[in-house]
UniProtKB/TrEMBL annotation:
<comment type="similarity">
    <text>Belongs to the Nudix hydrolase family. NudK subfamily.</text>
</comment>
<dbReference type="InterPro" id="IPR000086">
    <property type="entry name" value="NUDIX_hydrolase_dom"/>
</dbReference>
<dbReference type="GO" id="GO:0005829">
    <property type="term" value="C:cytosol"/>
</dbReference>
<dbReference type="InterPro" id="IPR020084">
    <property type="entry name" value="NUDIX_hydrolase_CS"/>
</dbReference>
<dbReference type="Pfam" id="PF00293">
    <property type="entry name" value="NUDIX"/>
</dbReference>
<keyword id="KW-0378">Hydrolase</keyword>
<dbReference type="GO" id="GO:0006753">
    <property type="term" value="P:nucleoside phosphate metabolic process"/>
</dbReference>
<protein>
    <recommendedName>
        <fullName>GDP-mannose pyrophosphatase</fullName>
    </recommendedName>
</protein>
<dbReference type="InterPro" id="IPR015797">
    <property type="entry name" value="NUDIX_hydrolase-like_dom_sf"/>
</dbReference>
<dbReference type="InterPro" id="IPR020476">
    <property type="entry name" value="Nudix_hydrolase"/>
</dbReference>
<dbReference type="GO" id="GO:0016462">
    <property type="term" value="F:pyrophosphatase activity"/>
</dbReference>
<feature type="domain" description="Nudix hydrolase">
    <location>
        <begin position="42"/>
        <end position="171"/>
    </location>
</feature>
<dbReference type="GO" id="GO:0019693">
    <property type="term" value="P:ribose phosphate metabolic process"/>
</dbReference>
Length: 186
């Protein structure tokens, strides 16, 4: 099956904001029916998300203040992929920097696109097991705390709205499916 009847084609465009982290693009596109429209979207370098599972099955999460929403969120450890950086190496780096933990077993879970209407951001999710505690090395200006919870607590917090971060919601569902043996990573 072809998707040509749905595809939009870039005619021209420009970067309207070029920040340290994000870029905003404004393009003129040709629609499938031949008419034209504009698309404004955020260019994002991509990020990794880590689902850190302790040997007893409990999960390591973080609490971090997020300025755009003016509140503290429960989240899985995550971070931006540097240019040319291998995704797994980025996940290992972020887990160590943010939590102090390293892991002896890593598995790729999936890629998610969390804001497809206005961003090209992609998140590469990894499962980390065989956790070994160590010293965190937070980036300058980064403040967070870690907490250990059960998968059932995560799911309850998702259901109650205490967890609303999309990567953490999806990661929690993956952990539940893996725990139940309904999904596997092999």
């Amino acid at each position: 099956m072809t998707d040509a009847h749905l595809k939009e084609t870039r005619v021209d465009g420009e970067t309207v904001y070029d920040g340290h982290f994000l870029k905003v693009q404004k393009d003129r596109v040709k629609l499938p029916d031949g008419s034209h429209s504009e698309r404004e979207f955020i260019r994002h370098p991509g990020a990794v998300v880590i689902l850190p599972v302790l040997d007893d099955g409990r999960i390591l999460i973080e609490r971090q203040y997020r300025y755009p929403n003016d509140r503290v969120f429960y989240e899985f450890p995550a971070g931006k992929i540097d240019p040319g950086e291998d995704h797994l190496e980025c996940a290992k780096r972020e887990l160590k920097e943010e939590t102090g933990y390293t892991a002896t077993e890593w598995k790729f879970v999936c890629t998610i696109h969390n804001a497809i209407a206005y961003s090209d951001e992609h998140l590469e999710i990894f499962l980390a097991r065989g956790l070994i505690e160590g010293e965190a090395a937070l980036d300058e200006g980064e403040f967070l705390e870690t907490q250990v919870v059960t998968v059932d607590e995560l799911l309850a917090w998702v259901r109650e709205g205490q967890i609303s971060d999309v990567k953490t919601v999806i990661g929690s569902f993956w952990l539940d499916k893996l725990r139940r043996g309904e999904w596997s990573l092999d």
